[in-house]
Each structure stands twice: as structure tokens, then as C-alpha cells.
């Protein structure tokens, strides 16, 4: 174990999540905040999203509202350096092994007063793999409390089924919580001071409410898997060829696929609209959270 204790590893295996408080220094946080400001400044004057920025439905060119910075590691050295640091990779290696491959990155921008909700879902429903050594690490960039839409999880749900994320015959990237036997009162919010890190298993049921508070709630997510977890056909994992796929190794060596007895659903037929989870989830009828107003 490089960073985590054996007790933390057992807790993760049992519950499917961890919260590590104050993992980043004040200097690291300041650098990340400055980089976010650089991106949000680009949103002023935009009438639609770009390859880098996903905009809130309530965005106006003169009153910019950014919902997500997309794939930040591909166009920001700051976010890429953080991804490759032991701050991120050491706890991941402790949980799923020394050979890690990147799935994707994103910076969800729940700005004060309107930050969009994310409906209940399981990441593994979007990208099923040959085994479930799959996780997401969230860098908490602002103090996070119950009032500003924290990430919420159902402990132990990573050891259960992969639920149906379809509606009207299409994949919509979200569950019907009541149909699948969950009660929101049993969800646990992952809250902590800025600079903390959350880790959640790829199969755990999670979501987050609208941020209606006066405080921002921004999280930088690095999603990754063990190098022996290979995408199943129909997964939303994108790559062009083996060289491209192996270029996503974060550390260690490429591995042959390891096939494990894990539940799988394939996210097909593809959603008729949207490329981000916010757009895809608009196809869900049984919503659990309010949507942002103008």
C-alpha cells in the first residue's frame, strides 16, 4: 500500500467509496482555481458549447454559465499534471493495482444558484468492461456541504446489479430510483473541505442534486480502470486502435483482458440526443432531482 491503509481498502471494498480529506495543498488548489477561471472567461460571448466547454441550459452570452470543462487533461497542462501525480494515482494503485488506464476526465461546474443536477446512475452502465476494477477519483475544488449539491452514493450498491438505464427504447444514462428499490434517504453525501478527494467504484449508484446555494461546487473527475479491464463491445469507451488505447496508460504496463463474473448491460440503442450525461439524461421520465431554472 502506497498511501491508503488496509482498513481504508477494506472500507472501499465493502462500501464502494472513500473520502480523503485535505489531500491537496493550498498552492495546488489556487493553481487549479486559476486554471478554471481561464476557461470560464472563454464562455463569455458564446452562443453554444465548444469542444472544451459544455454550457448550462440557462447560459447567456452576456451572462456565461459553464456546466462542464470537457476532457481537461487534453488541453490543460495543469489538469494533466494533476492526473499523473501520486496525489491521484497512488490511492488508485492501492485499490485496483499498479497498471492503470485512463477512461476519461471532466470538470463538473456546479456554480452557485444553478449548477445542474446529475440523475442517479452507475458509471459501469456507460462503459461495461471485462471486469469491474473501474473507479472515479473526484478532486473537490470548493468546500462541499449538503446545500450545494454534493455527490451522493448508495453504500454497497457496487456489489449489486447493473440497473436498466433505458427509457423509450434508448439508453438515457439514468435509473428509475423507486423502480430499482432505492430510497434517497439511504444515500450518503460525500462532503468535505476544498482539496479533499472522493473515490467511487464504477458500479456504485450515485447522483447529485441541483446546486441552489450561494457557493460553487466544482469537482474534477479522473475516471480510470485497471489495465486488464477491457471495454465490451457497445461500451461508450472511445478509441481508434490499439496504439491509441495503450497511449492511455497512466502507469504500469498494458495487460491482456481479465474476464470476471460481473453484471453487464450495454448502453444501446444509443441515445438520440446529446453527448454529455446532462443531455443524455433528458430522456429520463422518472426524475429524482429538480432541473435548473433560467
UniProtKB/TrEMBL annotation:
Species the sequence originates in: Jannaschia faecimaris
Protein name: Phytanoyl-CoA dioxygenase (PhyH)
Keywords: Dioxygenase, Oxidoreductase
InterPro entries for this protein: Phytyl_CoA_dOase-like
A Pfam family of this chain: PhyH
Gene3D superfamilies with a match to the protein in the record: q2cbj1_9rhob like domain
Residue intervals passing through the bilayer: none
GO function term, MF aspect, one: 2-oxoglutarate-dependent dioxygenase activity
Amino acid at each position: 500500500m502506497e498511501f491508503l491503509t488496509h482498513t481504508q481498502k477494506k472500507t472501499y471494498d465493502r462500501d464502494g467509496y472513500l473520502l480523503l480529506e485535505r489531500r491537496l495543498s493550498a498552492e495546488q488548489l489556487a493553481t487549479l482555481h486559476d486554471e478554471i477561471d481561464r476557461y470560464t472567461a472563454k464562455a463569455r460571448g458564446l452562443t453554444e458549447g465548444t469542444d472544451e466547454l459544455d454550457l448550462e441550459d440557462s447560459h447567456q452570452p452576456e451572462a456565461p454559465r459553464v456546466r462542464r470543462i470537457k476532457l481537461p487533461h487534453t488541453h490543460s497542462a495543469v489538469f494533466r499534471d494533476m492526473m499523473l501525480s501520486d496525489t491521484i494515482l497512488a490511492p488508485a494503485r492501492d485499490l485496483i493495482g499498479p497498471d492503470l488506464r485512463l477512461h476519461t476526465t471532466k470538470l463538473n461546474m456546479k456554480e452557485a444558484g444553478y449548477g445542474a443536477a446529475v440523475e442517479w446512475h452507475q458509471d459501469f452502465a456507460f462503459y461495461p468492461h471485462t471486469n469491474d476494477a473501474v473507479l472515479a477519483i473526484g478532486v473537490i475544488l470548493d468546500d462541499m456541504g449538503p446545500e450545494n449539491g454534493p455527490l451522493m452514493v448508495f453504500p454497497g450498491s457496487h456489489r449489486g446489479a447493473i440497473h436498466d438505464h433505458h427509457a423509450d427504447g434508448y439508453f438515457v444514462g439514468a435509473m428509475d430510483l423507486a423502480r430499482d428499490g432505492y430510497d434517497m434517504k439511504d444515500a450518503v453525501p460525500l462532503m468535505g473541505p476544498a482539496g479533499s478527494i472522493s473515490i467511487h467504484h464504477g458500479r456504485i449508484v450515485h447522483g447529485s442534486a441541483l446546486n441552489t446555494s450561494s457557493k460553487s461546487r466544482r469537482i474534477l473527475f479522473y475516471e480510470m480502470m485497471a489495465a486488464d479491464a477491457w471495454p465490451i463491445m457497445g461500451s461508450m469507451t472511445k478509441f481508434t486502435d490499439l496504439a491509441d488505447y495503450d497511449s492511455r496508460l497512466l502507469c504500469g504496463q498494458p495487460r491482456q483482458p481479465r474476464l470476471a463474473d460481473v453484471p453487464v448491460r450495454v448502453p444501446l440503442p444509443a441515445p438520440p440526443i446529446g453527448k454529455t450525461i446532462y443531455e443524455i439524461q433528458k430522456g429520463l421520465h422518472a426524475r429524482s432531482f429538480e432541473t435548473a431554472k433560467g
